[in-house]
Amino acid sequence: MVTTVMTFSCDVEDALAIERYCRMRGYSKSWFIRECVMQVVEGRAPLMPRDLRPMMKARSSD
Question: What gap in Å lies between CA 14 and CA 9, rounded to an integer?
Fold first, then answer.
């Protein structure tokens, strides 16, 4: 089981600082999304979109 850091950053400076944090600790991967939270998850973690409406609309138009 690896530790995965999922990052949600508001700006590039935060994203770069978090990337350095991940590299220094040997974490496997990091994701950058425009939100202001950071969570450390053990094992698997699904990445869910905040607003499903655009995705559902795209599917219904297929």
Answer: 6
Interacting residues of 15 by C-beta distance below 8 A, sequence separation 6+: 7, 9, 32
User: Within 13 Å, how many C-alpha atoms sit on residue 35's CB side?
Assistant: 12
What predicted TM-score, i.e. pTM, was given to this entire model? 0.36
Of 12, 31, 10, 13, give the one whose Cα is nearest residue 22. Answer: 31
What's the CA gap between 9 and 33, in Å, rounded?
Answer: 6
Residue 31: φ, ψ to 5°: -120, 145
pLDDT of residue 3: 62
Domain boundaries, the chain: 3-45
